[in-house]
Amino acid sequence: MPSTIVTIKRFLAFFCLCLFLWLIFISSQSNTAKGGIKKYKSKHNYSHIYRNKKDVIKTPDESGKKPFMLRDFSKNERDDLKPKLVYRGTDEEIDPNDIGLVKNAEDKKIRDDGYKNFAYNSLVSKRLGFHRKINDTRHQQCLNKSFSETLPSASVIICFYNEDFYTLMRTVHSVVRRSPRNIVKEVLLINDHSEDASIIKAVQAELDDNSELSVVKLLNPPERLGLIRARIFGARKASGDVLVFLDSHVEANVQWLEPLLSRIEENRTNVVTPVIDIINPDTFSYGPSPLVRGGFNWGLNFKWEGLPNRVEVFDQPILSPTMAGGLFAMDRKYFEELGEYDPGLDIWGGENLEISFRIWMCGGRLDIIPCSRVGHVFRKRRPYTSTSKGGVDTQTRNSLRVAKVWLGDYIKHFYATAAGVETLDAGDLTDRLKLREKLQCKDFAWYHKNIYPELEIPGQEAKKKPNDKVKNLQKYERWDQRTRNYTSSFQLKHIPSNLCVEPVESVTAKGSRLKLSTCLRSKKQSWYTTVRFEWVVARLLCMDAGKGEVRLMKCHEM
Prior knowledge:
Strand order of the largest sheet: 3-2-1-4-11
Helix content: 25-40%
Radius of gyration: 38 Å
Largest sheet: 5 strands, mixed
Structural class: alpha+beta
Number of strands: 20
Number of helices: 14
Strand content: 15-25%
Shape: elongated
Distance between the termini: 125 Å
Oligomer: single chain
């Protein structure tokens, strides 16, 4: 008989074996019922803490996902954790959609060569291509104007020297596409012996391959002429009723040509210019120009100046004492009768004032046509020299020639302003003086009194009476104190967010962007409309769309 101890040991072993088999049996039954997946539950349920969650928080295994380190978070990316491109040495973020973004060494070379050779960003110009949409910058009063079906035909003359290919072709395409086909008889491209032959080949290839440009002709003078004589060359080759002179870095806007021709049709002695809109040389952004007119100082330097009287009707011609010279239209036969350009003027400079004086003093009229808009790249420097073979600046020498023919006794003010200019050789003036006599032109005293009385005689300012000074101060209104006719006041509310529009900065900060903020009865959220359909904040600055964003700028009052 086994002892008591052995019996107890056998009983415990048997009990343990039975317990082990029972546990295996229970485990297999559980796995079969649950699909073979073992589920573990936490001792405590913390789901009530996350009140924004509808379901109980589950572990990766419970939700059937991968472990944390292997999960895919691509569907829930955080913008603040994304890498950002910035310009070296700054915190300024790079916009990958920026049309002027330099992406490689080739882009940098195109941009740098453009600034060097043309004084603007050729990389942006290339990416814009041959044609683009631009804002219609005309005043509302111009939009519904109609014109005669028998307008005179036009010859558009574009002289160029070392111009960027894409900028030049965009000029040509804008003229062709935004002008009635039955009016444009021809577009003459005058190549004044540009140094880069590859550009000329590219231009000719584009003209040959593109049937849309069938009216465009590329002409090459026998020698380098300079802008003034190149325009004379082009005018003599033209056959249209009207000559339209344009620079080679412009973009014609919607219905730009008809208002010019309509004014000339009224009277063949009318010489007209469009409003010259502003194309930025760095970004090529197109913006409207305010209404200004041409003037000059006693150094015979052209300048833009404000209009002497407030404009109320924006579809009528505006008298201008002078023109900038790059863009204007004139009856072809009247251009010949009036003596074309002075062929004694060299290369560039002074020709715009000379022809302006001749138009006014010899029986013509010079007007700006507000309903005609043409954009112009206003470069910060001239990329090529205007020095004659003798080393003389042509602007100064040409101005002396103009002064001797047209200023009469007033030339003393020119001499006093441009010291030392009288020592230069103005060339033979015989033909121009005979022309003046033949045309029976009036003198400069008449021009000063009737056309440009605002030109002050040196020393005249000190002789003004105190009452005259007060009157002038009363006529001038600062931009932030200007009188306007308001038609309504309101707040601009964004309905989905129930927020109102206001400036990011103060109501006097030009260029300030706009933002949405809690609606309040405040100055920053007080908007007004005027009879010119402007939206003015706090009766100070106007809402303006430019550079791809909405901002506050001075009101154009157009």
